[in-house]
Every structure is written in C-alpha cells, then in structure tokens.
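Write out the 3D structure for:
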Amino acid sequence: MVNHDSGITPPIKLSIDIFGKLLSNYNSDYQLKHDIFNEFAKVPEATPQTIAKVMRIAASKSLSDIKIVYDHFHTYIRPIKANIIKCMIEASTERDDIESLDYLFDLAGTKPNPHHQTLNPRDLIPNLRSCSASILSHFIDKGYINVDTNTRELIDLVDWACEQIRLDIIKVVHQRCLTQTQIRRYLPKVGSINKAAECNHYKSLSYLFEGNELG
C-alpha cells in the first residue's frame, strides 16, 4: 500500500506461509536470485517448524532452491535437525535427484546435532519403495544400504518390486549380491511370485526362473 503522505511504498512484509506458497508455485525454470530472495524473505516470525516446511518445498524444486533457502534460514535451525534433513531427502528422492541427495547427505554429515555428533546417513534413508533404481543403486554404492546389514528392508523391497513389476529394482539388489547365498536371500517369496504370475508379469517371471542374470 502506498503512503499517500510521502508517496513512498513501504517494504513488503512477507510472512513465512506466504513465502512458502510463493516458492511452491513459482516457475521451476526461473532461477531465484540471492538478491531478490534476500529482499523478500526477511521473515521475523520464522520458526523451526515453518522453516522446515519451506525447506521441504525447496527440496521438491531443485538443488539451487535448496541451497538458497538453507543459506538464508540455517541460522534459525542450527544445529540442523534430522527430521528436517530427512524430509528434504524424501522430497529429493521423489524427484530422482542424486545431486540434491548428495548435497543433503553431506550437509547431514558436516552439521553437528545437539549432541555434537554428525547424523548417521543410514538413519536418513527414505522408504525404499519411493526410490528409483538409480537412487537405490546410488544409496548402495555410497554404503548407506548394504545387502548384508539391511536384510529385512531389502527382502521386503524385492517382494514388493516383484508384485509391482519393478524388475529394475530387483536387478539392482541382485547385482550387489556376490554369492549364491545372498542371491537366494533376495529371491521373492512364493506369494509375491504368485501375484506376479496372476498379473502376467512375464519379464519378472522369466528373469527369476531362467536365472540368466542371477550369477
């Protein structure tokens, strides 16, 4: 609103909720500039809860948005909380963005928690069902998931992948198996195979029963 006495337009006061909506709806091809961001994102009522919401929105957009939001708001949430990082990791996983994930895991590893310890990457892994084959492969390559230590999670994932025609996921797990014992551990259970058969998932069944790529 214009001040009619002075003819000067006062600075826009942007609430954290309005800013979150703005960030959520802007064109993802448009690069937010630091000077514009800093001009409009001076939010005095920011709290860890509202900032966490905005940071998750940024993580659903791009790595550049994550960096801009974190650079501006990190002083409000220092030290970085595991639940905030995990929400951002989940959003980046949904976008299949390995570059953003690497940035966030590095952030978790370098920013101490209240006990002055870095966050354990294995505690930040999202639900494996939300992972693409490339993200799952990346997590395994990074050592965040292991065929020997994440047995229960990976067994459940293989069963789910068999039922959902996600042969790519099954192959990622099998490719990390070095022994026949490991491969047998990660064969789908009979119930999952029956569901695949009922739905005529020929490629999955052929892969599992012909075993050409199993070792």
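The first helix runs from residue 16 to 25.
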